[in-house]
């Protein structure tokens, strides 16, 4: 064994692996990290509100990230379909990624229908108490269907999209979410304001 | 339909969805986002060096995150084993998560053996040119096996761990990595310095 090898090995042994923790990151960011988990029917405003909140938080120099269908469904979860099992795995992976972002000191906003109580409960468990705020975008099916931004309700009614939440697959409303937004009564700006108030109230 | 509903729907239509982009985040962070992908045998120093680099970057107020076995194998990839197919899927998911972190404006450091050229090439493709720096922690099997920090080489020699990279499964060395660290000749501090120099040189 060469001397240099010896040196490297020794230094490896005595090297104290520095740990940049979540606490240190939050200190640097000057805010706490948390998941804002938006749930609700397609068209209930989840993604729009999440991006609106992100915009407000950016003005405060918060470090944020929105996870939604656009950046997750074709990438990380590109191998998954829409069977119950695949939907469950989809939400599990999103929960795990959200956990990593929270550990990284960020406010992560997720915008997925996430229709099943059990899946959301599992994510809450993964994240741990105080790290997961469930935000229910409550909106009547009638209004969501009238909006039909993506034209999916029409397709679901025609039977072209199977197991569509609200039409051919159930939506299980949250029983005790941290926040309810009645998105068929409030403006987007009012919804955004309520989410910001939640963060302020909880000191995030 | 009530008036409030009408109001909400209208505001939803005119609402301009604000987009906080990667560029804006990097501007806020005051640095570029990139993946530092450490690859090499078990015991070659990947994780130690990654954490050392992170420590240095934290002093510069960089926003960073290390993905390694500790925070990925039991969570996001907890459903995967060590078959070739599962290893491939493991690296794919890590690549996709790294992509999200890069989009979020962060410097993400990954520390996985990632023994197969094809898997690493796929991650490079996912990330896109200029966003992926492959860092080869080059170290002889002899030295890695002598270090055997986790006792895995001993188990592999005893046949208790199957398909162990370097012993019973191949390691395909990078052909044109952005950086080679001879970790059996350099100290950890020297390795860290070289990675920082790479970042400085490329303007990240």
Q: Can you characterise this structure?
A:
By secondary structure, the first copy, chain A, is an alpha/beta fold. Chain A is 47% helix and 13% strand. A five-stranded parallel sheet of chain A has the order 2-3-1-4-5, sandwiched between helices. In chain A, helix 3 (46-59) packs across helix 9 (188-201) and helix 5 (84-103) runs parallel beside helix 6. The radius of gyration of chain A is 20 Å and the shape is globular. The first copy, chain A, starts with a helix and ends with a helix. The interface between A and B is large, with 59 and 60 residues.
- Helix content percent band of chain A: 40-55%
What is the CATH class name of chain A? Alpha Beta
* Shape category of chain A: globular
Query: Which architecture of chain A would the CATH scheme give at its second level?
Result: 3-Layer(aba) Sandwich
Q: Could you name the CATH topology of chain A?
A: Rossmann fold
Give the termini distance of chain A in whole angstroms: 53 Å
Strand order of the largest sheet of chain A: 2-3-1-4-5
Q: Sheet bearing the most strands of chain A, described?
A: 5 strands, parallel
Provide the succession of SSEs of chain A. Answer: HHEHEHHEHEHHEH
Mean pLDDT of chain A: 90
Largest interface: A-B, 59 and 60 residues
Structural class of chain A: alpha/beta
Number of helical segments with 4 or more residues of chain A: 9
Report the β-strand fraction of chain A as a percent range: 5-15%
Quaternary organization: homodimer
Using only CA atoms, what is the Rg of chain A? 20 Å
Stretches of chain A where pLDDT falls below 50 for ≥5 residues?
1-16
What's the number of extended β-strand segments of chain A? 5
According to CATH, the homologous superfamily of chain A is P-loop containing nucleotide triphosphate hydrolases
Domain module count of chain A: 1
């Amino acid at each position: 064994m060469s001397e240099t090898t010896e040196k490297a090995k020794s230094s490896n042994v005595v090297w104290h692996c520095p740990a940049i923790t979540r606490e240190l990151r939050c200190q640097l960011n000057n805010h706490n990290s948390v998941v804002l988990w938006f749930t609700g029917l397609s068209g209930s405003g989840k993604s729009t509100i999440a991006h609106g909140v992100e915009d407000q938080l950016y003005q405060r120099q918060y470090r944020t990230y929105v996870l939604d269908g656009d950046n997750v469904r074709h990438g990380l979860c590109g191998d998954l379909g829409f069977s119950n099992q695949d939907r469950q795995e989809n939400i599990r992976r999103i929960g795990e990624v959200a956990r990593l972002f929270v550990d990284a000191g960020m406010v992560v906003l997720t915008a997925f229908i996430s229709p099943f109580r059990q899946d959301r409960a599992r994510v809450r468990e993964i994240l741990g108490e105080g790290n997961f705020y469930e935000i229910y975008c409550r909106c009547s099916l009638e209004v969501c269907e009238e909006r039909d931004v993506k034209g999916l309700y029409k397709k679901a009614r025609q039977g072209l999209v199977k197991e569509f939440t609200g039409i051919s697959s159930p939506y299980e409303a949250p029983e005790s979410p941290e926040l309810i937004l009645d998105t068929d009564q409030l403006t987007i700006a009012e919804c955004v304001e309520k989410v910001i108030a939640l963060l302020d109230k909880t000191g995030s």
